[in-house]
Amino acid sequence: MFAAVDLGSNSFRLHIGKYENDSIRVIKSARDPIRLAAGIDKNGYLTEQACKSALDSLTRFRAILRDYSLDAVRVVATNTLRVAKNAHELLPELERAIGYPVEIISGEEEGRLIYMGVAGVLAEPNEERMVIDIGGGSTEVIRGLGGHIRHVESFGIGTVNQSLAFFPDGAITAVAFERAILSARSYVEDAVHLFSFSDSVNIYGSSGTIRAIADTIARNGMGDGRVTPAGLEDLMQRLIDFGHVSQIELDGMKPDRAGVIMGGLAVLIGFMQEFGIEVVTPVEAGLRMGVMWDLQLRATKADRRDMSVDDFSHRFHVDAARAHGVADTALGFFQLLKPATDSYARYLYWSALLHEAGLVVSPTGYHKHSSYLIANADLPGFTTREQRLMSTLILGQKGNLKKISEMLADVDFAKSVLALRLAVMFRHSHITLDLDKVKVKFKSKIELEIRRDYVKEHPSISFWIQKEQEWWAGIGVDFAVRVLA
Predict the structure, then answer these.
(1) Can you give the pLDDT at residue 454?
(2) Closest by alpha carbon to 50, among 61, 40, 62?
(3) 93 φ, ψ to 5°?
């Protein structure tokens, strides 16, 4: 059983699902419409009340999760926590409230997970499709074939921010709608050419907003449950006729959605106009289903992050044999160092595979270039936090250790840095190591035992070991070396 928690700009949501018969069946859902995006003040900070609402919601979710025997839980945060200036201060409190790590994912990663959720539900391997997901703070558009994603874009426009910008006092006018629709079109007009499609491409709407709009259209005799320009025009006119959000009386429109429905409707109309879309079919799937499918893939060793590292390596012309040699050696050293847990093992391996990516920029300071690339690259499956971790590991592969000294307070992370540095050092000295004939410890100090024949056949290793001793001494760690016969 898997659980996906989505900290969205409009609502916090939870799905608990069970994988069976090649599908994921949702057995429990929860939703808190806390409107987090509306809690950002004029300076870009989440207000104290918004933070409290978020923490209260996650405390409730934690109580729900406690009742299930779960194989894995993943908590993802989207646009509002991407943009709020105090998000990283709030993050530890959110994690304590829910009891699990909270991952702030990029808009592109959000789009990929949304598409995975839709693809898992539709299960049509040869269908060409485009998926639109209008969230509270951003809108994702994804083009793909079956389970394969061809292109994804995230636009910083959503139901909450658009409603606040154009319908701030709840008044609903034709002029406000016209301005809101033009605004939505301006966000996407330069990206239309990236999503060119024929009449054979099916368009799906995966967000709660699109499903709510479609449901309202169907229940009130404006259409058949699909979204068309005529149905949207009819709904917009009815909202204008109501004149104010407090006066809306439409079958199926929940009161908690009424306040942001205008913004979502304007975005949907604007995007359909700009893309030239005639029909959008709502689908009961999206981010949370995608998160659970991703957890299922990880459980079966089909981790998207492995594919991302492989794709990135090819794109930046990394020497595969050399990279795998360093990665295997680094992992071997890490195991010799006996970490308390294996939590850094995979990140160490991936970092070693990518440690020379910066050579494509320049051999001089390549580790700095590699670090920057990994921190800022679009790596499907990885969170921002994971990329920062790998970026730090890669930066620490050589040279002065003071640049990452704060991270070295974590003993297991320090061991992963040492493992990568030793692997890089021995590889650069052209030594093919037999890890059964090397000993290394890291407790109060580092102790390395190395064979004399390594030193004799590869004289440069003596220089590198001496430099390594100096660099560790620079942060107050003794590095003792014994040369054995």
Answers:
(1) 74
(2) 40
(3) -70, -40
